[in-house]
Write a structure and sequence with these properties.
By secondary structure, this protein is mainly α. The chain is built from 3 helices and no strands. Keywords: Membrane, Transmembrane, Transmembrane helix.
Length: 80
């Protein structure tokens, strides 16, 4: 999971080498890294806290939904 998060964090930097449509600054990488750290940590806590599979999947889905909502809000402001 942590390796996947590192790859996700590296993708915008890689995309910036090939196109001008991706223009992230240091603050963008910092915020995205903090979001990934929080989401991965929450998933690890969920896996350790919940013993049965449905509870784990529900907790991980809730973390994923929260991550997506925060990301969308920061990107385009869906709650305004």
């Amino acid at each position: 999971m942590w390796g996947g998060a590192a790859i996700l964090l590296a993708l915008p930097a890689l995309a910036m080498q090939f196109t001008r449509e991706v223009t992230w600054g240091p603050g963008d990488f910092l915020v995205f890294g903090a979001m990934l750290l929080a989401a991965c940590s929450a998933c690890e806590v969920a896996v350790r806290l919940f013993k049965n599979r449905p509870s784990r999947l529900l907790a991980i889905a809730a973390v994923g939904l929260a991550f997506a909502l925060v990301w969308a809000e920061l990107a385009v402001g869906i709650f305004d």
